[in-house]
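hey m, so remember when u said the tokens were messed up on ur end? i reran from scratch. heres the input so u can diff it against urs
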Amino acid sequence: MRVHRIAAIAAALVLSGTSLLGMTASASQGTAPEGQETGAAGQETAPESQEVPSEGQETAAGGTGEQVYKKEPKSPDKVTLSFVGDISFAEGYNNMVYYHNNGDDITKCIAPEVIARMDAADIMMINNEFTYSNRGKPLSGKTFTFRAKPETVANLTTLSADIVSLANNHVYDYGETALLDTMDTLRQQGIPYVGAGRNLDEAKEIVYFQAGDMKIAYVSATQVERSYVFTKEATATSAGVLRTFDPTAFLEVIRKAKENSDFVVVYVHWGTEGLNRFEADQQNLGHQYIDAGADLVIGDHTHCLQGVEYYKGVPIFYSLGNFWFNSRTLDTGIVEADVSMDGILEFRFVPCLQSGCRTTLVADQAKRQQVFGLLQSISANAVVDENGVIREAK
């Protein structure tokens, strides 16, 4: 774990005014449902009290300014951006039973070699697929609701997370109060977030990283739920997520990010759970994001891998799937992009395996080649070489 990550975030500035060979049939065919298996531990009831942290990092709230975090890249010639998909620290599910049975040690759940690869990034992004709170009630009628103990947020620092997305369909599972607690908890830990806020202006806020000479923008929104909406959209006066079922507002955010940065990352929650093939609605949105200025589009939500498409030379990785979410055996991995002022220099997929409540690196060469072949087979116009490097098919 890099101590300088915490120091860099704590020194945030606001510029005002501005498987593989052993994969199961459900993983291959995408038939697994969204929910996790319940474990022996149930949800705990806690007093309705939680301290609201002070804004000692001077990060902007409610659309009042621009969040800029300073990072020192390891190389003078590039910045490495890394991404993983869905994680959950929600109590009452098998992965957290495993966690508690292993001394509340996330390194026993996500292998040290995986964490080392995450730590090698200059900027590491994770999807925070749950809420941090001891308060709130589960939403009536929702099958799976995810609430974690606030202290588990320290796991994000162990995982070298620099930023998380809250634009998903579980961050509101215990209502607005728990969402507010979630944002406060992340701020207290010194981890910025995108895709949700105390009001719509804050949900639309862009997080920037000044990495060497490059200013990199991160934005996030959710397309799901696409029928019945449990997860409330932020309004002028209420907390919620930024939605992109109708992308109008999100496209405005992307355009603004493009005007104020050198590279724009769009991280989006979309698609149909359990489906390896991306769909026309995802493709339509992804193309619009790129037309608006996105330089890289990363997706999640489907709980299984989806492929890659290039549009106007920009890659869309449609879904990273689960990273550490339940006990099922599923392909997963880390996406890495080396970027510079010239754009993406190299785009890579590092294969991992989620199985038995652990996520490990895939080291066996035959298994690595199999997953690269799988990824290419579910992609559109992308090829994946023997090292996991992804390029546009010519």
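this time it looks ok to me. The chain has one domain: 3-392. if urs says something different then somethings off w ur setup not the seq
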